[in-house]
Write a structure and sequence with these properties.
Helices cover about 40% and strands about 30% of the residues. The protein is of the alpha+beta class. The protein has a domain of about 120 residues: Hotdog Thioesterase (Thiol Ester Dehydrase, Chain A, Roll), CATH 3.10.129.10. Strand 5 and strand 6 form a beta hairpin. InterPro entries: DUF4442 (IPR027961), HotDog_dom_sf (IPR029069).
Amino acid sequence: MAFIDSLIGTAGQWVSSSDPKATLLQPLKWLKKTGSYAAVNRIIGMAIPFAPRNHFSVEELRPGYVKARVRLKGNKNHFGSLYAGAYFLVAEIPGGVLTLFDLGPAYTPILKEMTLEFLQPANSDVTVEFELPPEAVAAILADADATGRAKFTLEGILRDEEGNHVATSIAHYRVRMKGFKPQD
């Protein structure tokens, strides 16, 4: 795990120093941005092989923010819309991504509970965005550093390619600090 932890730390620094709005008009900045997202998605694939097999990807990542996508291709259900498991995939993994990249590899994210409310079928790729304000990150860190663990909740609005709100997720996470030893 030390190798993965090192990769997470390096990729986090690389991503946070890249310009999320870089285009091909700025080729070096664009290359850094696309390379950093490729690295993040590769790390996710190493940790959770199910994710790339099912066409999950992080599309944007910066401190306190993640945007992820799951593709319709390969994830259709029996009537041609997005399979329910794919909704869960795109709604769950970003919480771990935020935790790892905002708190660092010394903290392990654990999903405790997640609910998903389906509003309408998605007949396209689906995206979700999550944000953790700096004060929430600071509170999670303070709690985890003091007690070895901290709780937080993320609510996501899942949207199809036309921007329609197709589902809402509520995920309850816990992070644990690796190697925590309570002070006497």
